[in-house]
Amino acid sequence: MRIKGVGKRLQRQDGAAAVEFALIVGVLSLLVFGMMEYGLFFLQSQTLKAGTREGARQAAVGADLTKVKQAVSDGSAGAISPTSSAITMTGPDPGSPSSGCDGNSTLGNEVTVNIDTGTGSTYPAGLSSATIQSFQIDIPFMPHLDLHPTLSGTFRCEL
């Protein structure tokens, strides 16, 4: 015995799009949230790299460590405190890392400013939590990634 209209109802596509979307939404969320998290990490690391370059530029023209730390803070839009112990400077004289270039005796030598990005789940001391959240990428359904970018700027000593 054949029931009228059953064949036509089974051939309809009602709900097929919802089922397909339910199958794809997991992968789609991984991609969207992954791109957003990586974008935030990239923005934060570039902000701090800009600060280290500005600090190294100041050190190359003879600024001391206090002025260099202030330049790093200003160059990173306040993302790191000028009193942070994570900011270090290596001058042309390795025995005196707290001084930058001092004139003709260091002309042409390099001075480097670094920000220590910490290890494991610790973050650099003095980071403003309002600007820099962390160096982690947390994507739904994926293990979280701890990233430790190289944050340094190097310039040659000038007069």
Average per-residue pLDDT, rounded, comes to: 78
Helix content range: 25-40%
The major β-sheet equals: 3 strands, antiparallel
Structural Rg: 26 Å
Task: List the strand order in the largest sheet.
Answer: 1-2-5
Oligomerization status of the protein chains:
single chain
- Enumerate the spans where pLDDT stays under 50 for 5 or more consecutive residues: none
Strand content: 5-15%
Structural class: alpha+beta
H/I helix tally: 3
Order of helices and strands: HHHEEEEE
Distance separating the two termini: 100 Å
Dominant shape: rod-shaped
| Total number of strands | 5
Total domain units: 1
Q: How does this model look, in words?
A:
This protein has 159 residues and is α+β, with helices and mostly antiparallel strands. The chain has one domain (6-156). The protein has 3 helices and 5 strands. The chain has helices at 6-11, 16-60, 65-75; strands spanning 87-90, 110-115, 136-137, 145-146, 151-156. A 3-stranded antiparallel beta sheet has the order 1-2-5. β3 (136-137) and β4 form a beta hairpin.
How would the blueprint of this fold be written?
Layout: H1 6-11, H2 16-60, H3 65-75, E1 87-90, E2 110-115, E3 136-137, E4 145-146, E5 151-156
Antiparallel strand pairs: 1-2, 2-5, 3-4
Helix pairs in contact: 2-3
Kindly list the characteristics that best describe this protein.
3 helices, 159 residues, 3-stranded antiparallel β-sheet, two-stranded antiparallel ribbon, alpha+beta, 5 strands
